[in-house]
Amino acid sequence: MTSEVADWLLALMVAFAPPERAEKTDPFPGWEETTEERRERYADIGRDLYAFTYHPETKPLFGGKKGRARTAALLLAIAYHESGFAKDVDKGPCYRGKGGSSTRCDSGLSACLMQIHIGDGTTPEGWTQKDLFEDRKKCFGAGLRLIRKSFSACRSLPLKHRLNAYASGSCSKGHAGSERLMNLGEKFASRLPMPGPDDKHVTAKP
Questions:
Q1: Where are the beta strands (DSSP E) in 80-133?
Q2: How do beta strands 116-117 and 110-111 pair?
Q3: Candidates 3.40.50, 3.40.462, 1.10.530, 1.20.1530; correct CATH number of 4-200?
Q4: Chain segment 55-68, per-residue pLDDT in tens
């Protein structure tokens, strides 16, 4: 599947987390990848995020002719904040170090690019860590549910603070965390020309 939206998302990932830089700095044995391999994985992430956010059954966070694009940009920004698009966090299981001593991915309790904290349990949708690692669309779906829950709970607050509950668990806290995530989302949305309008790119494919 090729799409202007998927290409835009790929370009954003390359801009914010250059594949060649990751090849030189990724310290985790067993998760090495070349610049080209990382770029190809980025392309897969972009296609999956496009397929999820532009599916007719996915309700975007934002209104307007480019609401889905803005939603995709925010999801990608939060994924970057949570994971840096690292291979182990994307493909799973997260690197645990010798004897499982690493605190990466909340000591293994969180899964996938959106870092969904479920441990050995499941999401409300019934998805396990294995499910989230194997299907990025489920990962993005679980992340969007949490973001939407925070937006709803904190709907009386300014937009910049509607991720308070996502960041801290409470609408009365997490102001700095919410502002950081929302600002990052705006940087992703504005870094490159945004595709649109949405209805030109909506797909019926799951």
A1: 110-111, 116-117
A2: antiparallel
A3: 1.10.530
A4: 999 999 999 999 99
